[in-house]
Amino acid sequence: EDKVVQSPLSLVVHEGDTVTLNCSYEVTNFRSLLWYKQEKKAPTFLFMLTSSGIEKKSGRLSSILDKKELFSILNITATQTGDSAIYLCAANNNAGNMLTFGGGTRLMVKP
Amino acid sequence: NAGVTQTPKFQVLKTGQSMTLQCAQDMNHEYMSWYRQDPGMGLRLIHYSVGAGITDQGEVPNGYNVSRSTTEDFPLRLLSAAPSQTSVYFCASSKTGAGVGKLFFGSGTQLSVL
């Protein structure tokens, strides 16, 4: 059974801090790992990672995948209150039709 | 550009009632899926479809039916609602398989079963 585990469950930081969110996975015939941000309602896509060691970056957010150790991290630098959300990671198997999501990390950024 | 549209946004049912959650997308996506989200459990896949006339089960399919008669629509039917089906439901679509492209999510349906 495919499994994705995220840590920590929740995190409270102050504006300007840097945070690292973790995602480990056990997926048969792994294909890709995706990160989503969920603020109030629908999750929105952040990154899709398929290759080890290649950092994907978007503004203050970046993510990297380690296929040997089976994990990914999402970094957020210079956090802002608008970064407060639940961050979800999901792993995709080789069939490509099913995503297995982790339980999410709830991030709160205080002013 | 509407994207993925889900209705209703909120619904309260009594145990044993049936209902259909509607999902429509206007992006000509081949792949559509239904997830439920429970506190601390992330999103769990209920059913998915890779094209009109093709559906398959996800991780938690029991108690739910789907059909895909058109590319645009992918309704989710609760056959006989149970309190364990109280959850937030999301419909999501993608251009091709879930791993090939990013998923676009609807705004969700908050369902309570009493």
Question: Key terms for this structure?
Answer:
heterodimer; A: 111 residues; mainly beta; six-stranded mixed beta sheet; five-stranded antiparallel beta sheet; 11 strands; globular; B: 114 residues; seven-stranded mixed beta sheet; four-stranded antiparallel beta sheet
Can you walk through the features of this model?
The complex is a heterodimer of chains A (111) and B (114). Chain A is an all-beta fold. Chain A has strands spanning 3-7, 10-14, 19-26, 30-38, 44-49, 56-58, 61-66, 71-76, 85-93, 99-101, 105-110. Chain B is an all-beta fold. Chain B contains no helices and 11 strands. In chain B, the strands form 2 sheets. In chain B, strands 2, 4, 5, 6, 9, 10 and 11 form a 7-stranded mixed sheet that branches. Chains A and B meet through strand 4, strand 5, strand 9 and strand 10 of A and strand 5 and strand 10 of B.
